[in-house]
Design goal:
Elements (H helix, E strand, L loop, with lengths): L11 E4 L3 H12 L4 H15 L9 E7 L5 E5 L43 H12 L4 H4 L1 H9 L1 E2 L2 H14 L3 H7 L11 E2 L2 H13 L8 H13 L5 H6 L3 E3 L2 E5 L2 E5 L6 H13 L3 H4 L4 H21 L10 H4 L2 H8 L27 E8 L4 E7 L9 E2 L4 E2 L51 E4 L21 E4 L18 E4 L17 E3 L8 H12 L46 E4 L1
Antiparallel strand pairs: 1-9, 1-17, 2-3, 2-10, 3-6, 4-5, 7-8, 8-14, 9-10, 11-12, 13-15, 16-17
Helix pairs in contact: 1-2, 2-5, 5-8, 11-13, 11-15
Length: 588
């Protein structure tokens, strides 16, 4: 059994999926940087030591909670090249779910799967607007690891083995991860001199070197020679989008989460609204009734998510309705306490979206001033498109995996950039389409101390997540400690975690203060994560099936609204569950 304890600190926190990533972030805090500097420094380092998950030619969502209390979200997801056409991928099937597969897997592997990247631009913007350090400084740990090398973790090795047949198709990629034709081994020293040179170029000249500059020209030339469609003009026209978060309330706490086109914040608020009217504590933490309730609420959330994910520029997403208490009440009434249900999407919405990638990385940082950063960044599948731009060491994303039919706003997120010159079929060229329904990769960035699996007794700065930035929990008027449920003997508390695809992580606490390191105990590799994902796809019981024999159906008690509130107690920052080899560092 793995014991997990929250890690707390007073001066800062950095949590990533790799110890060198966390160390890079802590180094930025030690150098006088803030949470933004720490997050970006950690991410650049992760592009070296966790290259199968994240890269500068990738995509993501960035949620910032600034020291003055403001929240903002930077949408830095990929766009489709202007030359993308609705017929560039031929679906294997016209029906779900094979509709998401293209013939020849050209939307999964190779240059036709690559979207115009947003990570580098967003990271540089974040440092310039909100950081204390300069871009060159925050990139130094990444440059150091790329030049000197780092030791391959078993997790990286497992990823290489799983992807080896596709990696072997690209000599530049195979040279790094399949030396001599065989996968690297755990403990091997992996150096990336060409990528180090690329990072040095960016540090010296800024992100413009990719978005219209010399590095971008190198990418465009490779695309032209090898059958890709991204041009230098595509890169030069890329822009991030600043968005306002989705907000909601749960038993007096304010929740802020990333908005559409990601679905994380939207459906987190929806599901918590549904759950708010039940009494999870009364069902008993870990009981069949308890898990039945949670499963039914999740099924409703995902049914609506399947129909409503899209770019708000092209899809009318009923945000107000989905986040309303009235809608939650109507959905709550559909849940039976003793039978598994089948749930359709919100009335008037149909469609389907990609399942999202389990291969993302999440970084959360916090500093003593109150800045908190939650960033989910990705190159989509393991090692993205598997293609590396010759001479740069730069792996390219495969966000086309999430848009097998370019121009279909329900499968990808579209954003107009430039004139539409193809009449009614203008969703083709001259549109840079937001791609990848990242919402499925979301994790509720909400780690609460919950009495008996019930309600939070205090807000936490916590590092969790995936797809779509953080859902910060802040005390609001009327915030209360365990209020809202009928009386009864209080049960022992546990930790409530909503997370998707994250690894098993162990947290320790250094009571002496100072820089601490959490050590991972026990691991869940890719195969274990896949089994975990498979289990999520299974319904607890077939629709209409009764509970197991001998078990009485629980009585779902509506939450009382007259309980006396008690003020929440603040806790320091803490780190999330971590993937194999991951480490959280705090600056106490």
């Amino acid at each position: 059994m793995t014991e997990k304890r929250p890690a707390t600190a007073s001066r800062g926190m950095v949590v990533t999926n790799h110890p060198l990533g966390s160390a890079a972030g802590a180094e930025m805090l030690a150098a006088g940087g803030n949470a933004v500097d720490a997050a970006i420094g950690a991410l650049f380092a992760l592009t070296v030591v966790e290259p199968m998950m994240v890269g500068i030619f990738g995509a993501g969502m960035t949620h910032l909670r600034l020291a003055d209390g403001r929240h903002l979200v930077i949408d830095n997801y990929t766009t489709a090249p202007a030359a993308a056409r609705p017929d560039m991928y031929v679906p294997v099937s016209d029906t779900w779910p094979d509709y998401l597969r293209a013939q020849g897997d050209v939307n999964l592997v190779g240059l036709l799967s690559v979207g115009v990247p947003g990570t580098l631009k967003a990271w540089a913007e974040a440092v310039a607007r909100f950081g204390r350090l300069d871009l060159e400084t925050v990139m130094q740990p990444a440059i150091r690891h790329a030049e000197r090398g780092f030791r391959a973790t078993p997790y990286l090795v497992e990823a290489v083995k799983e992807s080896a047949p596709d990696l072997a198709r690209f000599p530049e990629t195979a040279r790094t991860f399949l030396p001599g034709g065989a996968p690297i081994k755990a403990g091997d020293l992996i150096a990336m001199p060409e990528y180090a040179a690329t990072l040095r170029l960016i540090a010296a000249k800024g992100p413009g070197v990719l978005y219209g500059g010399d590095l971008g020209a190198t990418v465009a030339d490779y695309m032209r020679r090898a059958g890709g469609i991204i041009t230098l003009d595509d890169l030069a026209r890329y822009e991030t989008i600043e968005r306002q978060p989705i907000r909601g309330r749960y038993h007096g706490f304010e929740i802020a989460g990333a908005p559409p086109p990601t679905a994380g914040g939207l459906h987190l608020v929806e599901m918590l609204n549904i759950l708010e009217g039940f009494d999870p504590r009364g069902l008993g933490l870990g009981t069949a009734e308890y898990f039945h309730l949670i499963a039914e609420v999740l099924k409703i959330g995902f049914a609506d998510r399947n129909a409503c994910t899209g770019d708000p520029a092209f899809v009318d997403i009923p945000v107000e309705r989905l986040t309303s208490k009235e809608y939650a009440a109507s959905r709550r009434a559909q849940i039976s306490p003793d039978r598994a249900g089948e749930y359709g999407a919100i009335v008037g919405m149909t469609g389907g979206v990609a399942a999202g990638s389990a291969h993302t990385t999440h970084v959360t940082t916090a500093d003593a001033d109150g800045n908190v950063v939650a960033m989910t960044q990705t190159i989509n599948n393991l090692f993205g498109s598997k293609a590396t731009v010759p001479g740069t060491g730069m792996l390219l994303n495969n966000d086309g995996a999430l848009r097998p039919a370019p121009g279909h706003a329900r499968l990808h997120r579209a954003r107009q950039a430039g004139d539409q010159q193809h009449g009614a079929d203008g969703r083709a060229a001259r549109r840079q389409a937001r791609v990848g329904a990242r919402a499925a990769g979301w994790r509720a960035h909400l780690h609460l101390r919950v009495p008996g699996g019930g309600q939070p007794d205090r807000p936490r700065h916590d590092a969790a997540g995936g797809g779509g930035g953080a859902a910060d929990l802040e005390p609001g008027p009327g915030a209360r400690d365990g209020a809202g449920y009928p009386g009864g003997h209080p049960r022992r508390g546990g930790r409530a975690r909503s997370s998707r695809g994250g690894g098993s992580r162990r947290r320790g606490r250094d009571e002496r203060g100072g820089l601490r390191r959490g050590r991972h105990a026990g691991g869940r590799g890719l195969l274990a994560r896949r089994r975990h994902a498979d289990r999520r796809e299974r319904r607890p019981r077939a629709a209409g099936d009764p509970l197991p024999a001998g078990r009485e159906p629980a009585r779902y008690v509506e939450a009382a609204s007259s309980a006396s509130p008690s003020p929440p107690r603040r806790r320091g920052p803490s780190g999330p569950s971590r993937q194999p080899g991951s480490t959280g560092r705090s600056w106490s």
